[in-house]
């Protein structure tokens, strides 16, 4: 009888729905955007068209267990072909040597996603302010942060330095994912 009770308990436990689950990114509804001040007069908006993410979210606790991403740097789009070609070049992003940017979460706490951002082989700890919207089997992750491009060696030689393009830029993520 005791053995039957133990087996029944195990079966019942295994029958419970798993609340933490991986999510598949819906690229058509997701964006990786950025903006940066130009000439201290205007803002340049841009995005990356090619990216992927690994998301594991626990609906019971509203907590991210895994949050990782990879961006193909050559997919940069600022609505200016000449500028985009220069951004891909060796003196700025050097996409031939550093084709991807990556992010890997180290901790999730109180809506903040802590993790390591790697650009051009340089890894820095950053914090994303985030909001999670759970709509059944659809999860929307809204996150943003500000970083200094000089921290990642995304600079070029100029006598004007920070006067042309600001050192600080804002990164905005709008990710929609479906539970698998």
Question: Care to describe what's here?
Answer:
The protein is mainly beta. The chain has one domain: Lipid/polyisoprenoid-binding, YceI-like (Lipocalin), CATH 2.40.128.110. The protein is built from 2 helices and 11 strands. An 8-stranded antiparallel β-barrel has the order 1-4-5-7-8-9-10-11. The protein is elongated, with a radius of gyration of 21 Å. About 8% of the residues have low confidence.
Largest sheet: 8 strands, antiparallel, barrel
Quaternary: single chain
Shape: elongated
Question: What is the level 1 CATH name?
Answer: Mainly Beta
Number of helices in the DSSP assignment:
2
- H/E topology pattern: HEEEEEEHEEEEE
CATH evolutionary superfamily: Lipid/polyisoprenoid-binding, YceI-like
Distance between the termini: 38 Å
- Write the CATH fold name: Lipocalin
Helix content: 10-25%
What is the name of the CATH architecture?
Answer: Beta Barrel
Alpha-beta classification: mainly beta
- Overall average pLDDT: 87
- Order of neighbouring strands in the sheet with most strands: 1-4-5-7-8-9-10-11
Domain count: 1
* Beta-strand fraction estimate: over 45%
- Model regions low in confidence, pLDDT < 50 over at least 5 residues: 4-18
Please give the number of β-strands.
11
Topology:
Blueprint: H1 2-15, E1 20-25, E2 31-38, E3 42-48, E4 51-58, E5 63-72, E6 76-77, H2 81-88, E7 100-109, E8 112-119, E9 122-135, E10 138-148, E11 165-179
Antiparallel strand pairs: 1-4, 1-11, 2-3, 2-11, 3-6, 4-5, 5-7, 7-8, 8-9, 9-10, 10-11
């Amino acid at each position: 009888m005791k053995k039957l009770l133990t087996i029944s308990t195990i079966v019942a436990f295994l029958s419970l729905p798993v609340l933490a689950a991986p999510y598949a990114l819906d690229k058509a509804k997701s964006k990786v955007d950025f903006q940066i001040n130009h000439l201290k007069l205007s803002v340049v908006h841009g995005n990356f068209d090619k990216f992927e993410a690994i998301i594991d979210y626990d609906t019971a606790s509203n907590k991210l267990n895994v949050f990782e991403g990879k961006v193909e740097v050559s997919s940069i789009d600022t609505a200016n072909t000449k500028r985009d070609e220069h951004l891909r070049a060796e003196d700025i992003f050097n996409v031939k040597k550093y084709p991807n940017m990556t992010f890997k979460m180290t901790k999730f706490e109180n809506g903040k996603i802590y993790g390591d951002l790697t650009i051009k082989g340089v890894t820095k700890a950053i914090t994303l302010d985030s909001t999670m919207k759970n709509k059944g089997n659809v999860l929307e992750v809204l996150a943003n942060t500000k970083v200094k491009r000089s921290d990642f060696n995304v600079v070029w030689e100029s006598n004007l330095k920070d006067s042309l393009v600001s050192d600080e830029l804002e990164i905005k993520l709008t990710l929609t994912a479906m539970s698998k």
